[in-house]
Amino acid sequence: MYFDKTIILPKLHRFLKENGHLLILYMAWLPFESEIAKTSEDLVLKYNPLWTGEGMKRYKIDKPDWLMDLFEVENAITYDIDVPFTRKSWNGRMKACRGIDASLLHDKIAAFEKEHLEYLATVSEEFVIPHYASILDLKKINK
Fold first, then answer.
1. What is the structure's pLDDT at 116?
2. Which of 29, 31, 125, 136 has the most crowded Cβ, counting Cβ within 10 A?
């Protein structure tokens, strides 16, 4: 999602040894299974209505269309994991999402953080946020 695959994949292909593997881990919180995650997402959208990272759900991993002729899927694993957070660490995680720190000016970031911390003061100091994780094991195609 964050790299131009037409540039990075050929470089990784050259870097890997024959029959080498590239592992990609993707994790997303599940807002429809956590009130804290859903409320936090709603707040991100309040400050950045153009954010497209909300509403993640589990999905089946298929063979990506961007593998070109460089890699093949050796294995694909998906699983659920409860990730522990404190109020402070969850606030930091939400600020770090591309909808806030990477997109907004300092005054909006500060306003988001103030409102988010006010909300988090209403929940337990420690909690878990359910996440969906997927690992894609790509094997180098030798040329």
1. 98
2. 29
Rama region for 33: left / alpha / beta (φ>0; ψ in -120 to 50; rest): alpha
* Joined tokens for residue 109: 């970031």
DSSP 83: E
- Rounded CA separation 64/9 (Å): 13
Nearest to 63 by CA among 12, 142, 139, 133: 139
CA 111 to chain centre: 23
Q: Which amino acid is at 50?
A: L
Tokens of 135: 């690992």
What DSSP string describes 9-68?
A: HHHHHHHSPTT-EEEEEEEEE-GGG-HHHHHHHHHHHHH-TT--------------TT-T
Nearest by Cα to 131 from 98, 77, 83, 87 = 83
pLDDT digits (tens, 9 = 90+) for 59-110: 888 889 899 999 999 999 999 999 999 999 999 999 999 999 999 999 999 9
